[in-house]
Amino acid sequence: MLIRTAFFPGPKPPPLAGDKNPRERTVGEQLLAEIEACVRLNPPMTFTRFGREAMNNKEFVRRLQEGLQPERPTQERARKFMREYGR
Questions:
Q1: Is it the case that residue 2 has pLDDT exceeding 90?
Q2: Both ends of the chain: CA-CA distance in Å?
Q3: pLDDT of residue 59
Q4: Most buried by CB count within 10 Å: which residue of 9, 29, 66, 85?
Q5: What secondary structure letter does DSSP report for 37?
C-alpha cells in the first residue's frame, strides 16, 4: 500500500535539461535545452507542435527527453527551425 503525505507527495518530475551545467550536457541534452527555451519564449508553441513542424515527428522532443542523441543534420534542422520561427 502506497501512502502519500505532505512529505512524500509522489514521484518527482524529471529535471529539465537546462538544469545541468552546459559543459556536462550531452548533444541531445543541449539541443533539448535550446528547444525548451524556444517553447518558453513562444507561448503558442508546445513540444509536440515543435516536433511535428520542425522534424515531422511529434515524438521528437519526448525521445530527446528519453536520451536520444541526434545526428548533426538533425540538430541543424531543429536549430534552423528555431531561428526561423523566432523571426
A1: no
A2: 53
A3: 97
A4: 29
A5: H
What confidence tens digit (pLDDT) does each residue in 8-55 have? 555 655 556 556 666 788 999 999 999 999 999 998 999 999 999 999
**For residue 12, which amino acid is it?**
K
Distance CA(81)–CA(55), nearest Å, equals 9
Cα(59)–Cα(80) distance, integer angstroms: 19
**How many helices (H) and strands (E) would you count in the chain?**
4, 0
Question: Would the pTM count as exceeding 0.70?
Answer: yes
Cell numbers describing residue 80: 534552423
Q: Which three cell numbers stand for residue 2?
A: 502506497
C-alpha cell of 5?
A: 503525505
Kindly list the domain boundaries of the chain, sorted by start residue.
22-85
CA pseudo-torsion sign 68, 32, 61, 8: positive
